[in-house]
Amino acid sequence: MKAVEIRKDIYWVGAIDWSMRSFHGYETSRGSSYNAYLILDEKITLIDTVKEPFKEELLERVASVIDPSKIDYIISNHVEPDHSGALPFMMAHCPNAKVITSIPQGLKGLKARYGDLPYEGVKAGDTLSIGKRTLQFVPTPMLHWPDSMVTYCPEEKILFSNDAFGQHLASGSRFDDENDLSVLYYEAKKYYANILTLYGRQAQAALKALKGLDIEMIATGHGIIWRSHVQEIHDLYEKWSTGTLEKRAVVVFDTMWHSTEQMARTITEAFQEKGVPATFYDIKENALSDIMTDILTSEYLAVGSPTINNQMLPTVASFLCYLKGLTAKGHKAFAFGSYGWGGQSIALVEDELKAADCDIVLDKQRLLNTPDKDTLEALREAVHTIVE
Ligand SMILES: Cc1cc2nc3c(=O)[nH]c(=O)nc-3n(C[C@H](O)[C@H](O)[C@H](O)COP(=O)(O)O)c2cc1C
What is the domain-level CATH number for residue 351? Predict the structure, then answer.
């Protein structure tokens, strides 16, 4: 396996994970990549490593360019094992290397995972001269762990952005302009929605910190490298991190005997009738990570569950737990569902929507047993009233 030169003397030496379909529960239908970069200068520098099972692939790609024992620095932008997992292995092959990490959190995290290594801590504004080139370190705390940082090389105008601007995507081509852009934007949005939504404020702070930098290339930690669409991905991060919403609706539900499903169909149609594109998600048939991607930029959210044993369905509870963790601040939401007698699920769903920071714009829509034509018409009209 060979390194890919992305600029003179700068190589992609990462690994492609074609077959992974779940990344801690996030459905990765297009696999992923763990990107590491090698800079040949007076001091030979490796930026990030890969997930542990791919360590041989990393070593082989590095060895296709230089003798790995010549590496002087390994920059660890992020402690999470998909980027640092191969660090002990690489250190065993790089006896002279120092590990550069953020302080205090990077140092703490790496020590806890890998014990004592020759660490050197860096903080905001610190730089490292590696010969003709300089590396500047920019902390991006909680984007998406406390230790996270990015590394900027001003001479090359390259930002080594780790998880920021990344996508879970396996591709044989390394650059944005060699891939289908619509897929890249979808996967970048999916990544933001499922990993970064909770940290919009921190994403804003990171964008501010990067503002003064002249960036020609964003060498991400996952997926492709941005070189032709740097401004576009920056603008999308601006949009997502400020919570800018589109006039769209997401209808999410589960059902036992299809009554709540009938309600979901009527709600979806009602939005459409008012000119609001709406998507209908049966939770059983869709990955939560895809539903979250749609929610990220949709103004309206309707969530439905029938009542079972005085509760909502566990699938709906699971979805709402995920939504609450990521948050859905400012989305216009309501709860709906069918019931047989007590009908407690609908209020429970509404409580969870409030806990996820949604604005409740329509009172709970509860229908007894199988809804008839008139009750569904009333539901349709109720939905019409909330569309501005
Ligand atoms: C196992 C089971 C438990 C149920 N428990 C309750 C309950 O605690 N309270 C209630 O109001 N209805 C309860 N129901 C009735 C359903 O909520 C009702 O049939 C509803 O119309 C089902 O909606 P669905 O067709 O969307 O599944 C229960 C139904 C089943 C099958």
Answer: 3.40.50.360
Which of ligand 1's atoms lies nearest the C-alpha of 253?
26
CA of 368, closest atom in ligand 1: 21
pLDDT for the residue numbered 388: 79
* Alpha carbons 290 and 45: distance in angstroms, whole number: 37
Element (H, E) at 150: strand 149-153
Rounded to the nearest angstrom, the distance between the alpha carbon of 379 and the centre of ligand 1 is 19
Rounded alpha-carbon distances, angstroms, from residue 281 to 21, 202, 290, 299, 336: 20, 30, 10, 16, 14
Secondary structure of residue 138 in the 3-state scheme: strand
**301 and 364, same domain (yes or no):** yes
Domain count, the chain: 2
Cα–ligand 1 centroid distance for 85 (angstroms):
47
- End of a domain among 241, 268, 288? 241
> pLDDT means per 10 residues in the chain (388 residues)?
97 98 94 98 98 98 98 98 97 97 98 98 97 97 95 98 97 98 98 96 93 96 98 97 97 98 98 98 97 98 98 98 96 98 98 98 97 97 95
Please check whether residues 236 and 258 belong to one and the same domain: no
Contact status, residue 32 vs residue 7, Cβ threshold 8 Å: no
The dihedral built from the CA positions of residue 15, 17, 23 and 29, taken in this order, carries a sign that is positive
Pocket of ligand 1 (CB under 6 A): 255-260, 306-310, 338-343, 369
